[in-house]
């Protein structure tokens, strides 16, 4: 998640003049079948969800 935080995109205007930025970042734990999600570049608030079948 630190790597995703380091390369996240700050808010800026894109070529169409709309605001663009990193909206979410996900790290998948395939062994334990979980995903950790951060929203709106808030890497201090992590949500981990089990994705068991």
Question: Can you describe what's shown?
Answer:
- 9% of the residues lie in helices and 38% in strands.
- It is mostly beta strands and 53 residues long.
- Strand 4 and strand 5 form a beta hairpin.
- The longest helix is centred in the first third of the chain and has 5 residues, at 2-6.
- It is elongated and about 40 Å long.
H/E order of the elements? HEEEEE
Mean pLDDT: 93
Number of strands: 5
Biggest beta sheet attributes: 3 strands, antiparallel
Strand content: 35-45%
Briefly say what this structure is:
With 53 residues, the chain is mainly β.
Topology (elements, then pairings):
Blueprint: H1 2-6, E1 12-13, E2 19-20, E3 24-29, E4 34-39, E5 47-50
Antiparallel strand pairs: 1-2, 3-4, 4-5
From the structure above, extract its key features.
3-stranded antiparallel sheet, 1 helix, 53 residues, mainly beta, 9% helix
């Amino acid at each position: 998640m630190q790597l995703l935080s380091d390369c996240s995109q700050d808010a800026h205007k894109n070529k169409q003049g709309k605001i663009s930025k990193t909206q979410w970042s996900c790290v998948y734990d395939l062994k334990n079948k979980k995903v950790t999600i951060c929203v709106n570049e808030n890497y201090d608030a992590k949500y981990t969800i089990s994705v068991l079948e």
